[in-house]
Amino acid sequence: MAEVEEVTEGCHLPVLRRNQENEDEWPLAEILSVKDISGRKLFYVHYIDFNKRLDEWVTHDRLDLKKIQFPKKEAKTPTKNGLPGSRPSSPERDVKRKVEVVSPATPIPAPTETTQASVFPQNGSARRAVAAQPGRKRKSNCLGTDEDSQDSLDGIPSAPRMTGSLVSDRSHDDIITRMKNIECIELGRHRLKPWYFSPYPQELTTLPILYLCEFCLKYVKSLKCLQRHLTKCDLRHPPGNEIYRKGTISFFEIDGRKNKSYSQNLCLLAKCFLDHKTLYYDTDPFLFYVMTEYDSKGFHIVGYFSKEKESTEDYNVACILTLPPYQRRGYGKLLIEFSYELSKVEGKTGTPEKPLSDLGLLSYRSYWSQTILEILMNLKSETGERPQITINEISEITSIKKEDVISTLQYLNLINYYKGQYILTLSEDIVEGHERAMLKRILRIDSKCLHFTPKDWSKRGKCTVRVLRSLNVSLL
Ligand SMILES: [Zn+2]
């Protein structure tokens, strides 16, 4: 049996963890780092085939030293570029080997845009495919800056951008960015435990708690600093224009060029919970749509999505995130619904930039399914014949890009070929499942409450400083 001292970076061995059912299990893990705190060794482990957000520091008694696999000789060299071996990322273990059916690049044999699809209910159950996340992850490059320079990050060189995409190459994939570096973030009344690395200044990564102003998202190193900041900061909502309000939910549109400091701080916070896309400090080409919930203290950030001002690839969302305290409550779908409402006003169809995170994909799948099923089930037959609709019509009504409509119909397994025609078959299971899901979907976007005029960014001089105030709904 190996000794604790022999456990080094790159070793693989079973590590004890508690699963969701509160049971102990021993999945294989990779040691990413070892540290010594007053004579006590701690090991940073990544569980192979589990999402990186579960990575953690563990003590030696959780390591199964009997089954240790030492790193292979040739594997030791590229320490700076990450250790070979694990390329993790399935979301949860139970879906890890299922089929990925999402990629719009997947050749689609069945209906074309001109295909007329008929809809009729059918008895019996339809089998559902389960989508899993593509096993890809993206990294961000590290940025060192001190607290006082938050308002002037302009001078920091950003990595070359690739056609407006937030997706980076893998060249910055090093051991540092594979490990979460912030222990805890205090944001308003919430304490957040980051899931992934975020390039906050290095000197702040040793703090037990990083304090953020919940309105301007400025980060400071202590509660005292935060209290001092709050006496000066008079923001009670995100900067930019409030373009939507219904009940306590509002959306603010923030221009990444006009509100650079806020946008950069938002990216830093978001990176703690997004691993597959990289933020760049060049926020100019992006708009940020921040969703807030109002109470007597102000407009509290719930989530956001970013969007390129001009997308050549019909992207209507770049990054999208619901902050953890608000997850699993329907807010993610509300963000997605809002992004399509903007596309409807723009008269375009749109799609989120790929790759999606595991959670992002689940939300999109569910949103697409519900939106398309809603349309199919409301189709009226005029002559007693089966009602008919084209893929193009579904796409135009919903602003969901055609490829996503098709992949959703395939995912729901609705498409059948019958007597030379493509037919959509809605089983009772599908109909009942949909009705149940819609009863639970209480949070909805009300398009009447959206006050949004799309801008034609291609006509705007990129270097010209202009004051743009197309719309400013006054607050309270
Ligand atoms: Zn502030």
TrEMBL record:
Gene3D superfamilies noted in UniProt: 2.30.30.140, 3.40.630.30, N-acetyl transferase-like (3.30.60.60), Winged helix-like DNA-binding domain superfamily/Winged helix DNA-binding domain (1.10.10.10)
Keyword Cytoplasm part of the UniProt annotation: no
Keyword entries, A-Z: Acetylation, Acyltransferase, DNA damage, DNA repair, Metal-binding, Nucleus, Transcription, Transcription regulation, Transferase, Zinc, Zinc-finger
Predominant localisation class: nucleus
Keyword Zinc part of the UniProt annotation: yes
Residue intervals of the MYST-type HAT domain: 177-454
Pfam families noted in UniProt: MOZ_SAS, Tudor-knot, zf-MYST
The name this protein goes by in its record: histone acetyltransferase
